[in-house]
Design brief:
Blueprint: E1 6-10, H1 21-28, E2 33-35, H2 46-51, H3 62-73, E3 81-85, H4 87-97, E4 103-107, H5 119-125, E5 137-138, H6 142-148, H7 155-165, E6 169-170, H8 171-179, E7 194-199, H9 207-215, E8 222-227, H10 240-252
Parallel strand pairs: 1-2, 1-3, 3-4, 4-7, 7-8
Antiparallel strand pairs: 5-6
Helix pairs in contact: 3-4, 3-8
């Protein structure tokens, strides 16, 4: 395969593009052109977004997230390596299916609509769907983030991580992931290489779910790497460089 020197990093739910700042610098030092677009309704400083919710947030759905990345990719001189975390792990799978990436990486990725998640996932993310809420969006509490994201980092670091990264999230993103047929994946379709990364201590998408999704693909290269002891905050907790380098080593060896 021809190796693209372009990488697109896509952030997941409940955070924004600030989570990729160090990854961008890390990959650029290795000679890559790196894009870290904010999903619609997510651009800005997280502390400001918690105080004044972005006006576009509640209109944003999963389809909008994918289309936003397609719009970017269509302006690039070559198809990129696409890396997505959490919800955006599923976005990366969709972009591979649509022929928009030279390879795709799903880090602690959400399942497609046609893969049923385990009870642990449902229990953790159910509030993010807003089915029983009168609010217009989801804003996780400190306790929710501590359990769902930051469960493996020291207690003293959890408050800092929340202040630095936590943002409100659109109910529409999560709802479209489970209710809209766009969020299905055709596992029989021929595809470019895909790498699945899982955190062994992820409370949202446990490694068993990552393995289940990966094993459904039938017609293309699929690899899996589970990092023991890593949480859903795998891209931000200490040791993230090991994860970033594993991805690049995998990609460069294709």
């Amino acid at each position: 395969m021809s190796k693209s020197k372009t990488i697109v990093l896509i952030h997941g739910n409940f955070v924004n593009d600030n989570t990729w700042t160090e990854w961008k610098e890390h990959y650029e030092k290795k000679g890559y052109k790196v894009y870290t677009p904010a999903n619609p309704g997510h651009d800005g400083n997280p502390a400001d977004l918690r105080t004044n919710v972005h006006p576009d947030l509640v209109q944003t759905g999963f389809i909008d997230v994918v289309n936003n990345i397609i719009k970017l990719i269509n302006t690039l001189p070559e198809k990129p390596l696409v890396i997505g975390h959490s919800m955006a792990g599923m976005a990366a799978l969709k972009l591979v299916e649509l022929g928009k990436a030279t390879a795709g990486v799903s880090i602690d990725g959400a399942p497609p609509k046609n893969v049923f998640p385990p009870f642990q996932t449902l229990k953790t993310v159910l509030p993010a769907f807003g089915f029983f809420s009168s609010g217009k969006y989801f804003m996780g509490s400190r306790e929710w983030y501590d359990y769902a994201f930051f469960n493996t980092i020291p207690q003293a670091e959890k408050q800092k991580a929340f202040e630095k990264f936590a943002v409100p999230e659109s109910y529409k993103v999560s709802r479209e992931l489970v209710l809209n047929s766009f969020s299905n994946i055709d596992f029989k379709k021929s595809h470019e290489p895909i790498l699945f990364i899982g955190g062994g201590s992820d409370h949202i998408f446990p490694p068993s779910l990552t393995e289940t999704i990966a094993q459904k693909y039938k017609n293309g290269r699929v690899d899996i790497k589970i990092f023991d002891g890593k949480s859903h905050f795998i891209c931000g907790e200490p040791g993230w460089e090991i994860v970033a380098d594993h991805i690049l080593n995998w990609y460069e060896a294709l």
